[in-house]
């Protein structure tokens, strides 16, 4: 294969992803066509299909980018625990802040989840992505418990599901009533209590506690 197209491929993919983010934010997943994405990216339909088979595959590429952003943000927050007098609330506050990009992603991912529920094969693929992200979150929760000198008494995968549900449910309510509920309010208020309830003091030598 010629070297030129190979070198250009990452740039083409990046342009399509950026264009898709903008188009999905404006029109939603269903309201955005492949032609719209290609035109916004300044590319042809052929360029789109040389990178993605369909809009679903493009969404999953966006999912992967967002998931990595979430993992990076959580990892950084846990790494900085020693700078806080209240580490758990500090982590939750840092990760609960919602900007315009996060709002757009929530709207898109919610719409796509409904789409997946109606299409079993898409649901299976989405579940695989969710499982991978949940594994990362469970690992971060394990490091959080170690940092604060506690050991979980529940399955971390289930705890990751619950914390994700609290975050997404709280965000939905906040977007509907922004003047009544801050995006991170429920998580910051109640998840520290949950963390205490589903853990116990770590046995000596189980990990260095937070100081």
UniProtKB/TrEMBL annotation:
**Entries under PROSITE patterns matching the protein:** HTH_TETR_2 (PS50977)
Q: Which UniProt keywords apply?
A: DNA-binding, Repressor, Transcription, Transcription regulation
User: Where does the UniProt annotation place the signal sequence?
Assistant: none
Q: Does the keyword Transcription apply?
A: yes
The record, for Pfam families, names: TetR_C_6, TetR_N
Q: Does the keyword Signal apply?
A: no
Mind listing where the DNA-binding region sits, in residue ranges?
33-52
Provide the HTH tetR-type domain boundaries.
Answer: 10-70
Provide the protein name. TetR/AcrR family transcriptional regulator
Report the source organism: Streptomyces aureus
């Amino acid at each position: 294969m010629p070297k030129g197209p190979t070198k250009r491929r990452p740039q083409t993919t990046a342009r399509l992803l950026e264009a898709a983010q903008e188009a999905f934010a404006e029109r939603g997943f269903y309201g955005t066509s492949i032609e719209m994405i290609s035109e916004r990216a300044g590319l042809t339909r052929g360029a789109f299909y040389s990178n993605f088979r369909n809009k679903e595959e493009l969404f999953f590429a966006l999912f992967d980018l967002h998931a990595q952003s979430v993992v990076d943000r959580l990892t950084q927050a846990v790494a900085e625990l020693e700078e806080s007098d209240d580490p758990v609330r500090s982590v939750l506050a840092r990760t609960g802040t919602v900007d315009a990009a996060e709002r757009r992603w929530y709207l898109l991912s919610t719409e796509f989840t409904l789409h997946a529920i109606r299409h079993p094969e898409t649901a299976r693929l989405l579940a695989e992505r969710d499982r991978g992200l949940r594994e990362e979150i469970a690992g971060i929760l394990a490091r959080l418990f170690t940092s604060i000198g506690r050991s979980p008494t529940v399955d971390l995968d289930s705890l990751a599901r619950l914390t994700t549900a609290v975050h997404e449910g709280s965000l939905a309510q906040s977007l509907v009533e922004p003047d009544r509920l801050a995006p991170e309010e429920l998580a910051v208020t109640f998840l520290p209590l949950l963390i205490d309830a589903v853990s116990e003091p770590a046995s000596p030598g189980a990990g260095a506690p937070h100081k």
